């Protein structure tokens, strides 16, 4: 487990650190361009980069907390710190975008002239290229770790990439047509798109905090694994949840009552080993129950029905 956590931690920290560095660089560049151009869309993009940096910083700290081993007060570990970070990120993004939309509406009603649109376009294009590189790197990390924190950060950067595409379209429209209201209209439209992304991040984080079940495909695979063991009569009380990068699985298995305790123990160990192969870090707990007469009769009927079908 320590090797898994160590590798997991290094991958997550590298992904988040790169995101922080990108956000700091873009914030400095965009602030200078906004100061000289007065573009509302650039202001929206600037504030989004600021929140990217703050959100990534919060996520970096949360990941460190989530990787701490279980202790006497936190028996299941600290994995949900990642989901808390994702939720905080969603809230900060929502508040920031609301302020941008309000400022853009004010600018739309009382427009002011723009300047230095060439530099605004240049910085925005460079920002998009850097964001594409970070997104590609984070996608590799996500495929290896399935980290909720990196997923949230990746969604945020993708939203920023879309935002910057809108900035390019807005500034190009102003440059070509001279109609400066395009700037505020694009800022409002892009703000609404980012709000949707923030809602998606928040919903995912809340689901983890409320112990939403793990992906349905893995749940189906768990049932398939159990069904491969003829000693198991039935499966019930299957419960799953996610905390950080760990999937927790609990279940009750009804087994042949004539089996010895040692035999049942060996079988459940084999089932747990097979289930753990479905995910890189899974905590499995199985409670075995002896089948009563009713269960035994049901199993005999199923076996008999299966023989008839084969004939």
Characterize the biggest β-sheet.
3 strands, mixed
Q: Give helix and strand order, one letter per element, not per position.
A: HHHHHHHEEHEH
Q: Please give the CATH architecture of the largest domain.
A: Up-down Bundle
State the secondary-structure class: mainly alpha
Give your account of this protein's structure.
- It is a single chain.
- With 311 residues, the protein is mainly alpha-helical.
- The protein folds into two domains: 2-209, Cation efflux protein transmembrane domain (Alpha-lytic protease prodomain-like), CATH 1.20.1510.10; 216-310, 2-Layer Sandwich (Alpha-Beta Plaits).
- The protein has helices at 2-37, 40-66, 81-109, 117-145, 148-177, 181-209, 216-227, 261-276, 293-310; strands at residues 232-243, 246-255, 282-290.
- The two termini are 48 Å apart.
Summarize the structure.
The protein is mainly α and 311 residues long.
Features:
elongated, 311 residues, mainly alpha, three-stranded mixed sheet, 73% helix, Alpha-Beta Plaits, 10% strand, 9 helices
How are the SSEs placed, and which strands pair?
Layout: H1 2-37, H2 40-66, H3 81-109, H4 117-145, H5 148-177, H6 181-209, H7 216-227, E1 232-243, E2 246-255, H8 261-276, E3 282-290, H9 293-310
Parallel strand pairs: 2-3
Antiparallel strand pairs: 1-2
Helix pairs in contact: 1-2, 1-4, 1-5, 2-3, 2-5, 2-6, 3-5, 3-6, 4-5, 5-6
